[in-house]
Amino acid sequence: MARKVIGGTLAVATHNEGKLREMRQLLQPFAITAVSAGELGLPEPDETGSTFIANAELKALAAATFAHLPALADDSGLCVDALDGAPGIYSARWAGPQRDFDIAMARVAAEMQERKALDPSQRRGHFVSALTIAWPDGHRETVEGKVHGTLIWPKRGTIGFGYDPMFLPDGHSRTFGEMSSAEKHGLTFGRPPLSHRARAFKMLADACFSAPREPVAPIVPV
After folding, report:
1. Strands of 140-151's sheet, edge to edge?
2. Is the pLDDT of residue 220 over 60?
3. C-alpha of 108 from chain center
4. What pLDDT, on a 0 to 100 scale, did the predictor assign at position 217?
5. In the annotation, is 137 catalytic?
6. Residue in 74, 75, 81, 119 annotated catalytic
7. Which of 49, 59, 81, 119 is the most exposed place for a label (fewest CB within 10 A)?
8. Strand partners of residue 124
9. For residue 21, which phi and psi values (nearest 5 degrees)?
10. Given the DSSP bridges, would you call strands 9-12 and 33-36 parallel, antiparallel or unpaired?
11. pLDDT of amino acid 218
């Protein structure tokens, strides 16, 4: 039986503004106050895990211990078949110290080109999101969501963040960079979740959160 989070405050263990914004939107229907790592002055731990799940658990446990609160952490990335699963857990590092994902996307496109991955069937990939809620006593609950699609270039769209503008999810004609957060999240708007993070969040919410209340106005990140 999964441990429940019933109202109160949840630390969100990320310094990524785009990821924080999505987390706050996903948490809207629940009676939970999300406080960011920046607001709490939480340090960023070294991500030494070899998997998305290991890194999500590492970050959540570090935040829960430091903040003395239940903490939610995500570790996510893009896995490209033609690049043997890269950038994978190193997705953020490909963006460099300034987190410039235009650089990261250009590198993905260039390396696929070098490997002669030109046809859409050769440009397959998937996003992964591992989500962990950890408590100060060390207990944790972890899930993992995925969404498959095709990598396109040139990129399309200016919505979202990270590799969204070059990822075309299966069954859709627009990239994640061309979709609103409502379309990507789905679950709080009467549709099944589409994005990897929304799919993981749905699993975690079903296990650990009380029944959602009616959606409210968006929370504006600070």
Report:
1. 33-36, 9-12, 71-80, 124-134, 140-151, 167-169
2. no
3. 19
4. 40
5. no
6. 75
7. 119
8. 150
9. -60, -45
10. parallel
11. 41
